[in-house]
């Protein structure tokens, strides 16, 4: 089952556009976001195994030598993916509707 790691780093807003393009071009990278806080760059990736996390970090360091990874996290088990509930083996067991068929009264949807 693929492992979605997330890394946090620091970047100046002036260099973010260039950094974003280089990061998004790396294999496995799903999103690159600039956020508020001490570690203002978040990179989300989709890898085949947790062993590939170090390879991704090496590629990030080569693409942007001035960028320093400050924190990382790895999702050990994905419960839901693309509207599907997954079992412990990562197989789809049922779908999750995007919209409720009968919205609750007062929920703001019509």
Automatic annotation (TrEMBL):
Indicate the segments forming the Transcription regulator AsnC/Lrp ligand binding domain, all copies: 15-69
- InterPro entries linked: Dimeric_a/b-barrel, Tscrpt_reg_AsnC/Lrp_C
What's the domain of life for this entry? Bacteria
Q: Gene3D superfamilies from the xrefs?
A: 3.30.70.920
Q: Report what the protein is called.
A: Transcription regulator AsnC/Lrp ligand binding domain-containing protein
* Species this protein is from: Actinomadura vinacea
């Amino acid at each position: 089952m693929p492992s979605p790691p997330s890394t946090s780093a620091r970047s100046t807003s002036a260099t973010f556009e260039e950094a974003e393009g280089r990061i998004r071009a790396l294999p496995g990278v799903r999103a690159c976001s600039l956020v508020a806080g001490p570690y203002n760059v978040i990179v989300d990736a989709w890898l085949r195994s947790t062993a590939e996390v170090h390879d991704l970090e090496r590629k990030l360091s080569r693409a942007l030598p001035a960028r320093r990874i400050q924190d990382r996290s790895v999702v050990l088990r994905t419960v839901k993916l693309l509207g599907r509930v997954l079992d412990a083996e990562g197989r789809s067991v049922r779908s999750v509707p995007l919209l409720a068929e009968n919205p609750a009264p007062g929920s703001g949807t019509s």
